Amino acid sequence: MENLQRLQLLESWVKTQSSGKPFTLSAASSDASSRRYFRATFSDGALIIMDAPQQYEDCANFLSIAETFARSGVNVPEVLAQDPEKGFLLLTDFGDTTYLQAMTESPERANHLYGEAVDALIKIQIASNPGVLQDYDEALLSRELNLFPDWYIDKHLKVVLSPEQRADLASVFSKILKNNLSQSRVFVHRDYHSRNLMDTQPSPGILDFQDAVYGPVTYDLVSLFKDAYICWDEERVMDWLIRYWEKAKKVDLPVSADFADFYRDFEWMGVQRHVKILGIFARLCYRDGKDGYLKNMPLVMDYLRKACERYRELGPLLLLLDTLAEDKPDATFGYSF
Predict the structure, then answer these.
(1) Listed residue (102, 89, 99, 101) closest to 37, CA to CA
(2) Cβ neighbours around 25 below 10 Å, total
(3) Residues 6+ away with beta carbon under 8 Å from 332
């Protein structure tokens, strides 16, 4: 009943914004939050309506970051009308084709699409300044890491860690944070991956940026190249990463002068993100009833294990992952995808 009333309120609002022009309303997409998206199709085109109920979501971040990113020269939806109190935004429509869909249907387009995504990311990073976005600080990074024991281990695997295991995990988390916090900082989209990049003109159309922060320079590269929804071989990822690094140096972005150092930062940032994602996917399932994300856990786990295998300091985390796999062999844990 509440959803029906909400939908009626949304339809009435769109009619007002469109001066009564007739339209049909259809679901466009939903995401991992409480936001929903609808498409209003008119005789001369279509628009997107973001439905972000005020009690769950705050449109202010979306509006502010949309303006910030637009100034950097990248393609984000234009806000045509807004009612933050109701939680409604009327946006330009980027269509239906995500990078994920485009590359799944035509893998040969990947080099071109990732090249465009890298160029857009560099524009965002060049525009970076402190004090504009929330800092991706130790407290926030730590809260994200702790989603792993709280939701993945406790809720998903139903395992209670021993005091020794918890101490080992805390020690590894401390090392991860030390690396993350030592990296140069730029604007970070925070979910810059194939489901949030649209195959449109100019490409990419960038979505889901409302949680952007000011943080480690490698973070969005991990989102892009170690994507939870599509996998590429490591040689190809290395090539794309080198291309980014070379472009970044040419425009004086704060990347390490030595690629080996830059790659290590990329890997360690990936460990933070993938530990977090495993916790988030478990939370989406058990708290929010969205179990569709569980099928993506094996790929995320594979990324995490490979990085841990390469760095001795991450050995205790790898040992814990091995132990958990032995204790819960039937859980959604797998090493293949």
Answers:
(1) 89
(2) 14
(3) 156, 294, 295, 297, 298
CA–CA distance, 296 with 290 (Å, rounded to integer): 12
On whether both 75 and 151 belong to a single domain, the answer is no
More confident residue, 73 or 327: 73
Residues 207-231: tens digit of each pLDDT? 999 999 999 999 999 999 999 999 9
- CA proximity to 34, closest of 51, 59, 14: 51
- Going by C-alpha positions, the residue among 122, 152, 198 that lies closest to residue 300 is 152
Same domain, yes or no, for 173 and 61? no
Give me the residues paired with residue 186 across strands: 215
Q: SS3 for 254-279, per residue?
A: CCCCCHHHHHHHHHHHHHHHHHHHHH
Q: Are 306 and 277 in contact (CB under 8 A)?
A: no
Q: How many independent structural domains does the chain possess?
A: 2
Structure tokens that stand for 187 in this block: 């604007």
